[in-house]
Amino acid sequence: MYCKFSVxxxxxxxxxxxxxxxxxxxxxxxxxSDTEVHKKVNxxxxxxxxxxxxxxxxxxxGGKEIEPYEIRGCNILNPENVEMxxxxxxxxxxxxxxxxxxxxGSLNIIIVKIPEE
Length: 117
Fold this sequence. Notes:
Layout: E1 15-17, E2 20-28, E3 31-32, E4 36-38, E5 41-49, E6 51-56, E7 60-61, E8 64-67, E9 70-72, E10 75-76, E11 80-85, E12 89-92, E13 98-102, E14 106-115
């Protein structure tokens, strides 16, 4: 079995198989995601148009576990600011606090969620 996706398709829909997930998202500035930590899931961000920044760190405090192994609303300590633009790919390993920010224009992004188990 295989699945083919094209970013040229206006009607992209999320794909889920077991714990594996591909999300096709569009954000318009100004946008700030919740801060989050996935304890057992790696994220891959693929920017196919626009630009954004991602705040990352190896430390956080607080937040609320919204479901097992998923923390939201944490305070990211000493964040690194990673600038992203069309064509960039970013791997965010499990247990890495992160936040996506779009300050101008629009962002088209594919987020792939890969479980560690």
